[in-house]
Amino acid sequence: MPWPSRKRDKGAVADKKEPDAKIAKTEEETSDKEEEEKSTKPPAGGSKSGWKNWKKTKESDSGGEESKITYCHWLLKSEPESRLEKGVDVKFSIDDLKAQPNQTTFWDGVRNYQARNFLRAMKLGQQAFFYHSNCKEPGIVAIVKIVKEAYPDHTQFDQKDPHYDSSSRKENPKWSMVDVQFVRMTKRFIPLSEIKAHHLAHKADGGPLKNMMLFTRQRLSIQPLTQEEFDFVLSLEEEKP
Fold first, then answer.
1. Which InterPro entries does its entry note (predicted)?
2. Where are the domains of the chain?
3. Closest CA to 71 of 217, 238, 219
């Protein structure tokens, strides 16, 4: 099995179009090169009207009741392009996941405490966006689901693994992982630039992406999503780019 780039919270780098968005795998490692995101302005009127139309539809479906603010979905960053980490290629694209037996694999190598805690909060059957990171065009490519809840990450004990942690003990492991399974590709690629345009518009008009962690805590490779955030981003696959 290839070394997945989801092992990203250690020595991770920024999305090339995401400001200060390197994914820190340990809280101590902060020296990775950061790359500037090309500035993206929301299209005039486009995002706001899109949010209003989406909100109108959701209110119609739910009788006007607002969704509770809880994290029940996730965004998982992984690198689709080759990059060596301690001599190991950490590339892991959605095609690599689809090539795994039963299209399932463990999501290992997370070495950031907050990201680890998010892993430990994941529940069986919850869905997540598979996000291509640190590449020419970062963005969401697919949906996966959690098929095994958090358990000890075996790579922390493997001295040959890029994410070996000599301070972790088998009787009290510091790091966890989950198993994920491919569900489907999104109907189209949803680029970071498009999501950011909606985020900026929602900051002004109170839309669901106003506090999206993809822009408030860019360094994390594991990010929670509210139901509204997940639903809105998923609705974008129905729109023409």
1. 5hmC_binding (IPR052181), EVE_domain (IPR002740), PUA-like_sf (IPR015947), THYN1-like_EVE (IPR047197)
2. 71-236
3. 217
Chunked into runs of 10 residues, the chain (241 residues) has average pLDDT values of 47 45 32 33 45 56 50 96 92 98 97 97 98 97 98 96 96 97 98 97 95 94 97 95 77
DSSP-assigned letter for residue 167:
T
Sort 67 into a burial class: Cβ within 10 Å, 0-12 / 13-18 / 19+: middle
CATH of region 71-236: 3.10.590.10
What residues contact 64, with CB distance under 8 A and at least 6 apart? none
Give the pairing type, strands 88-89 and 84-85: antiparallel
Residue 218, strand partner residues: none
C-alpha to C-alpha distance for 111 and 119, rounded to whole angstroms: 11
Q: Rounded CA gap, 73 and 229, in Å? A: 9
- Helix/strand/coil for 37: coil
Q: Report d(CA 41, CA 98) in Å as an integer.
A: 34
Lookup: tokens for 21? 């968005």
Residues 6+ apart with CB under 8 A from 143: 127, 128, 129, 130, 183, 184, 185, 186
User: What's the pLDDT at 202?
Assistant: 97
Closest to 235 measured CA to CA, from 61, 18, 118, 94: 61
